[in-house]
Structure formats: C-alpha cells, structure tokens
C-alpha cells in the first residue's frame, strides 16, 4: 500500500477533523456539521482517487490526477460561493 493511502486509510477521523478545521478557518460561518460533511466528502474523494490511481497504468496517472483535482476543486469552490446556479448553498 502506498504511504499516502496508508495515512488516509489509517487515520480517517483525524484526516476529516483536520480538513474540517481548515474549512472552518476558511469560512468561519460554516457550522461544525456543515464543515464536517464537506471534510468527509473531500476525504472520501481522496481515498477513492488513491484506489483509482493505484489501478491506473503509469501513462494514465497524470490524466486521472487532473480529473480528480478538477472535480474536487469545483466541489470545494461551489461550497465556498454563496450561490451556485441560482440556488443558495448555505
């Protein structure tokens, strides 16, 4: 198992809590529950990414990484905007 996958898999609560704290620092108006939900989604996305990247042939890892990076970036950007496509996020 790659070291980064081991760290995420062995410390999921610590990872989500650390991400939650970072999110709360970025947007202090987030409730604890909202920040924890976003953190859990981010951590689980990274865990999924790690399994996909581990199964990908070496020549496909860069495009796979780019897709996951874009997906996670768009998700987090949407969560930190006040409105998305006419709907109030928080």
Fold and architecture overview:
The chain is mainly alpha-helical. The chain has one domain. It has four helices and two strands. A two-stranded antiparallel ribbon has the order 1-2.
Rg calc = 15 Å
What overall geometry do the principal axes of the alpha carbons give? elongated
Q: Report the total helices.
A: 4
Binned, the helix content reads over 70%
Uncertain runs are 1-10
Biggest sheet details: 2 strands, antiparallel
Number of beta strands: 2
Average pLDDT, rounded to a whole number, is 77
Compressed to H and E, one letter per element, the order equals HHHHEE
Widest sheet, order of strands:
1-2
End-to-end distance, in Å? 38 Å
Structural class: mainly alpha
Strand content: under 5%
Number of structural units classed as domains: 1
Summary keywords:
90 residues, mainly alpha, two-stranded antiparallel ribbon, 2 strands, elongated, disordered N terminus
In short:
The chain is mainly alpha-helical. The chain has helices at 3-10, 12-26, 32-55, 61-80; strands spanning 83-84, 87-88.
Helix-strand layout with pairing:
Elements (H helix, E strand, L loop, with lengths): L2 H8 L1 H15 L5 H24 L5 H20 L2 E2 L2 E2 L2
Antiparallel strand pairs: 1-2
Helix pairs in contact: 1-3, 2-3, 3-4
């Amino acid at each position: 198992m790659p070291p980064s996958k081991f760290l995420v898999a062995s410390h999921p609560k610590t990872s989500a809590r650390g991400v939650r704290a970072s999110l709360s620092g970025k947007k202090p108006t987030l409730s604890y529950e909202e920040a924890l939900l976003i953190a859990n989604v981010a951590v689980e996305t990274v865990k999924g990414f790690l399994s996909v990247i581990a199964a990908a042939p070496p020549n496909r890892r860069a495009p796979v990484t780019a897709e996951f990076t874009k997906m996670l970036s768009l998700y987090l950007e949407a969560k930190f905007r006040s409105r998305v496509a006419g709907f109030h996020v928080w």
